[in-house]
């Protein structure tokens, strides 16, 4: 077990002293004093925020979160790569999604702004369908802003 705010644990000394003082000199029924001391103890423990680290299973692989960002600007219509840059990028993204891994993927398109198309998921067929739905005929913008992709990936 770990503590998110261990600095609050020093209050246990004060609460312990107060509980001892109540036990010796306190007035009222023993039950009331025990309930009050227990409530104070639980409050201090709650302030310290105990937590258990997640146990990793022996056989389960841990993957990464990956953003597949596809440039859909006008320059992707160039035919310097067969058949076009755009089609080659889609084929590479499809090949990435076809590889077995424990990663989760999100898909976005970008020109001057980032357009999220699919949230983080491990459903590869859904992501492939999203990629197939991106058509070159829909490209309208002639410029590219890579910073929009990087800022979107952080978000």
Characterise this structure.
The protein has 155 residues and is of the alpha+beta class. The chain is built from 5 helices and 5 strands; from the N terminus they run βααββαββαα. It has a 3-stranded mixed beta sheet. Strands 1-2 form a two-stranded antiparallel ribbon. Helix 1 packs antiparallel against helix 2 (30-48) and helix 3 packs antiparallel against helix 4 (124-132). The radius of gyration is 29 Å and the shape is rod-shaped. The relative contact order is 0.14.
Structural category = alpha+beta
Distance between the termini: 31 Å
What is the N-to-C succession of helices and strands?
A: EHHEEHEEHH
Largest sheet: 3 strands, mixed
Outline = rod-shaped
Query: What is the number of beta strands?
Result: 5
Radius of gyration: 29 Å
Strand proportion, as a percent range, falls in 15-25%
Low-confidence stretches: none
* Average pLDDT rating: 81
Q: Can you count the helices?
A: 5
Strands of the biggest beta sheet: in what spatial order?
3-4-5
Tags for this model:
three-stranded mixed beta sheet; 5 helices; 155 residues; alpha+beta; single chain; 43% helix; rod-shaped
Task: Describe the structure concisely for a colleague.
By secondary structure, the chain is of the alpha+beta class. The protein is built from five helices and five strands; from the N terminus they run βααββαββαα. Strand 4 and strand 5 (114-121) form a beta hairpin.
